Amino acid sequence: MTTFQLEVVILVAIGGGLTLYWLLGGADFGGGVWDLLAIGPLREHERTLISDAIGPVWEANHVWLIFVLTGLLAAFPSAFASLGFALYVPFSIAIAGIVLRGAAFAFRSWGDRGSAWQRTWTRVFGVASIVTPLALGAAAGAIASGRIHIAGSTVVASLWGSWTSPLSIVTGILALASCAFLAASYLTVEATQRDEREMEEVFRRRALVSGAVSGVVAMLGLLVTRNVSPQLWHGMLTRAWPFAVLSAVGGIASLWTVARRRYRLARVAAAVAVASVVTGWGVAQWPYLIVPDLTVADAAAPANALRPLAFGFAIGIMLVAPSLFLLFRVFKGSGSESDTPSYH
Questions:
Q1: 207: in domain
Q2: Structural domain total, the chain
């Protein structure tokens, strides 16, 4: 296998890990959004359902983030260093959000129901669940916007302007909306498995609203991309348009199936819609890792470093995939809800 082929294989693997993190970890962030927005007499019931859905698997979902970061560091070290320098503010915000969110999720479980302790950590959990995808989405927009410039070993990027451009703002909002959409779509299935009709209707309405909002923001993102990122727009028109179409079809199918109360199909369609956005972004940006100066070939490590990394990825996938499948089968399989521990 040539060096170029190794670069592509490893990059596809990293992209797959990023997609899985957004589909699984992103839904956890979305659950935190709905947890914060829970109001009315059913709010504690909503939060219990969200906690029970997230509880058994939320730490496992961060495996994919670790995979993406370590893979990027080992395979594309110059890109990792450049992004860490240019985007350390949004990345620091995201890391703080992930840490505080995890701590809040654990700490609030030990407080008495309705106590000041529990209310405080519930707010922290919800706010961190909003801030983190906003920061990560804004960073993604910065990578594609052309506001990060690299000349040799010098990285030129505004402390704030690189990740607060119109494209970054739209991608941040899209990231947050897609997390909320995924969570609501998944939670309708959780509620149906538990035969909780009130919760099913609550999250059915939220899936319809957040799905529609995600679609509108995605279309707005295309308009912004056309105006501010010509290279990304060209890639979208020439290479990535099938993924844009697939995302639109998946989003419409998800909304239709939610409206028809076919929640399992809606969950799959929602995942297809979001995964297509992530994949389409990567394809449209090719061959750049950071637009417009750093290509995949320029950023790749030497072949003698890529070969053992590719081998390690293969071994890791063979070890991790069955374990994660078993975890989700036990805790997320049909009928497993009665055995899921409560976190309140």
A1: yes
A2: 1
Per residue in 174-190, pLDDT (tens digit) is 999 999 999 999 999 99
Compute the half-sphere exposure of residue 326: CA atoms within 13 Å on the CB side of its CA: 5
- pLDDT digit string (tens) for 245-267? 999 999 999 999 999 999 999 99
Query: pLDDT per residue over 47-99, tens digit each?
Result: 889 988 887 777 778 888 999 999 999 999 999 999 999 999 999 999 999 99
Q: Got the DSSP string for 135-153?
A: HHHHHHHHHHHT--EEETT
Among 186, 165, 184, 187, CA closest to 176? 184
> Exposure string (b/e) for 182-219, b if CB count within 10 Å is 16 or more?
bbbbbbbbbbbbbebeebbebbbebbbebbebbbebbe
With respect to residue 344, please indicate whether it lies within any of the assigned structural domains.
no
pLDDT digits (tens, 9 = 90+) for 67-77: 999 999 999 99
Domain membership of residue 252 (yes or no) is yes
Residues 6+ apart with CB under 8 A from 130: 29, 32, 33, 36, 176
Is 38 within the bounds of a domain? yes
Query: C-alpha 82: how far from its chain's center?
Result: 22
Question: What CA–CA distance (Å, rounded) separates 227 from 210?
Answer: 26
Domain that holds residue 318: 3-339
- What's the mean pLDDT when you consider all of the chain? 89
Residue 4: per-residue pLDDT = 65
CATH number, domain containing residue 111: 1.20.1630.10
Angstrom distance (rounded) from CA 52 to CA 34 = 14
- Packed helices 241-259 and 263-285: angle between N→C axes, nearest 10 degrees: 160
